[in-house]
Design goal:
It is a single chain. The protein is about 20% helix and about 30% strand. It has about 450 residues and is an alpha+beta fold. Strand 20 and strand 21 (about 450-455) form a beta hairpin.
């Protein structure tokens, strides 16, 4: 296809593929209580992400038509207005949508807030969309979060997508952590692997966000996110991926934003970030931007998995206090079982992994690991010999994506395993020098796929 014809085709596709999907999302919400304005508008038309959130402030990112200059207002249940700052807009050429980024301040975790999205047209103001949200009581020493990965919007999962997100809504965690493969850019139908452009990335992200119910819930949910290969832009992606800068801009546009000092801090070189609350720290690592290619390498680089900047940033942050910490990574950290086709920090970047383990042995804080990617969920026990105390890696996959045959894993806790479509909830409670955890797997079946109680103490 001649290059000069491609922008016109992308404009055509973004109009005819994305706009109808927005309407589809609203229709699918009619199976649940409908939130409707006095003018008969069904809320949920726009894709919206409530991102990092403290007790007093929150970041919210709104996917808006590119020509609309919406006004954003927030009030509590008593009609008292909060401070709303629209601090950035993220755009891309030949795409019909943009991302408006707002910060809302002066909030209270005991209040319910309403976000109103107002449209001005020829001197008339109308309500374009509306949502409710809460902040988080981060002073508590316990939190229930959902760990989710592998969220394909492929037609093969059409009958699975809505019930899975309805189940998450029913479980109602305090916080949602999206741990990679949030969007399948290279899904075999639209984008060739390793060749995604900025426009390809935007179109696939927009298709997915308009389809998945989560981004259209009336009640928003605080969300933390990092990526793995498919939302980075290509299968088994690494630092050689040509569109990685565009991918970072888009991902941070949708899931990141300004720092919340003392609560949420992004690491500037990739999409890594740290969230602090509930007496715990949550590190969401970027395992793609600086990744040494998995195969064909003559030497194993010292920082081959995360890159030197991210590794040192993580270590420096961990050393600052002994607050229990979580490390989230897109692919698994510990190998579990050695397989040629499987990605894992330990398997793909052995030199870096050895250095990482030696470095965190000296950290006073107990650490728990979490990952996605493998299209099954499991809990691995990390023996005391590794770090000087017993800990775990909790893998959650997949929400709705391809299901493989799985494999035996000698490190797996007996019974803590499922290949069904599922997500995990983790009740994480601070104890003396550690954490008590309850990990449960939920999916399409009425019963839990597994439930296990764990303790990590240093």
């Amino acid at each position: 296809m001649p290059i000069h014809h491609r922008p016109l085709i992308y404009i055509f596709l973004s109009f005819f593929l994305l706009a109808p999907l927005s309407c589809t999302s609203v229709k699918k919400q009619e199976t649940t209580p409908v939130h409707e304005s006095a003018d008969g508008i069904l809320f949920g038309r726009l894709a919206i992400v409530q991102g990092p959130t403290s007790d007093k402030e929150t970041l919210i990112n709104i996917v808006a038509p590119r020509l609309k200059n919406y006004n954003y207002e927030v009030q509590d249940q008593n009609g008292v207005a909060a401070t709303v700052e629209k601090y950035d807009t993220v755009t891309a050429p030949v795409v019909l949508y943009k991302i408006d980024k707002i910060m809302v301040r002066g909030l209270n975790p005991k209040s319910t807030y309403t976000l109103k999205i107002l449209s001005e047209f020829r001197g008339h103001t109308s309500l374009a969309d509306q949502r409710e949200f809460h902040t988080l009581d981060i002073q508590k020493k316990e939190v229930t979060f959902a760990a989710i990965s592998c969220m394909a919007d492929d037609w093969k999962f059409e009958q699975v997508i809505d019930p899975m997100w309805a189940r998450l809504k029913k479980e109602n965690p305090d916080l949602v952590i999206l741990n990679g493969d949030i969007v399948y850019v290279d899904d075999f139908d639209f984008v060739e692997r390793k060749k995604a452009t900025e426009t390809d990335l935007w179109l696939r992200y927009l298709q997915s966000l308009h389809r998945l119910p989560y981004y259209h819930w009336y009640n928003l949910k605080p969300t933390l996110a990092t990526w793995d290969d498919h939302d980075f832009g290509t299968n088994d992606g690494d630092r050689t991926f040509k569109a990685k800068a565009a991918a970072k801009k888009l991902f941070i546009g949708l899931f990141g934003g300004k720092s919340l000092p003392g609560v949420w801090e992004p690491e500037p070189s990739g999409v890594t970030s740290m969230y602090k609350g509930f007496g715990q720290r949550f590190y969401l690592m970027d395992d793609r931007t600086f990744r040494q290619p998995n195969k064909g390498q003559k030497t194993h680089e010292t920082y081959g998995h995360w890159g030197e900047k991210q590794h040192k940033w993580l270590l420096q942050s961990l050393k600052q206090e002994n607050t229990p910490a979580w490390i989230f990574n897109g692919n698994q950290v510990f190998n579990g079982k050695s397989l040629d086709f499987k990605e894992a920090f330990e398997a793909n970047h052995a030199t870096h992994f050895v250095k990482f383990i030696e470095d965190i042995k000296n950290i006073s804080a107990p650490i728990v690991f979490s990952s996605g990617d493998v299209h099954f969920s499991e809990v691995m026990r990390i023996p005391t010999a590794r770090l000087g105390y017993e800990t775990y890696e909790i893998t959650s996959s997949s929400m709705h994506s391809y299901r493989g045959s799985g494999w035996d894993n000698p490190m797996r806790i007996e019974g803590a395993y499922t290949r069904e479509y599922n997500f995990l909830t983790v009740d994480s409670r601070v104890i003396d020098h550690g954490l008590e955890l309850k990990v449960e797997s939920y999916g399409l079946a009425p019963e839990k796929y597994f439930s296990t109680n764990l303790k990590v103490q240093k």
